Amino acid sequence: MIRYQTKLGAFYKGEVKTLLSNREFNVYRNKVNLIFTSPPFPLNRKKKYGNLQGSEYSEWFSNLAPLFSDFLTDDGSIVIEMGNSWEPRKPVMSTLALRSLLAFLDMGNLYLCQQFIWYNPAKLPSPAQWVNIERIRVKDSFTHIWWMSKTPFPKANNKNVLEEYSKSMKNLLKTKKYNAGKRPSEHVIGSKSFLKNNNGAIPSNVLISTNTNSSTNYLNYCRDNNLVPHPARMPINIPNFFINLLTSPGDIVMDTFAGSNTTGQSSEELNRRWISIETNMDYILGSKGRFSEIKEFE
User: Fold this and answer.
1) Beta strand pairing call for 2-5 and 252-255
2) Under CATH, domain 2-163+202-296 is a member of which superfamily?
3) What are the pLDDT digits (tens) for 48-58?
4) Which terminus of the chain is more solvent-facing, meaning fewer CB atoms within 10 Å of its CB: N or C?
């Protein structure tokens, strides 16, 4: 089942429910600190990779929750990216993704810690019929990222994902001059509320990132070995953010729909152990280009 290993991780080929139910995976039960993954989206049309639809998708997706929960530590987290879907032949959005999420939470007895948005400014206009042709909708340029856990207080530290202060904040810290007092919202801001240097700003739950690089080790490896790159690669700074926020060096990160294994690369670079699972052998072969040293298995 293992296709290759690195210093910190292993990539397995197989269907997620089958592998996680295998005795070989018992060693990971209650040991995984973060499951970060992007499963097939709940599309309302058939794709060549054989995606599920409607209630069949919702049932399949929600039944993953108890299985995922079995592998989490008590303070571990599940982070799932899920895109939007639209009703067939209608300019209206489907609620299937939301219904599937609610079913997932119920089946896993999980808490929804926070909702994130991944905004991709470079995303192609979609749905094309209603955006480009009929011109009655605007471009759908974000996906949801849902953070869940078994406890209301999972392991997390936003000090690990601080952003650089803005120019105005840097000036404020330098001059120590701030307009304190009561605001229209009726909040009272003290004179020292924003004058402490915390070495960075707390980020928002809107993550902005594109994936337009045409030259990376992964893409070069695919070209050199005549492999088709994964068509929906995630920018590495997205898993970087959640791995830094929710885990510590040495923790275990699992990606159950690993694709080109961006999560594995992120984990390796951040000194986390990792487990990746994927059914498509072409994607697994291409993902080897993300690592300088690997041990392969037949």
Assistant:
1) unpaired
2) Vaccinia Virus protein VP39 (3.40.50.150)
3) 444 566 788 89
4) C
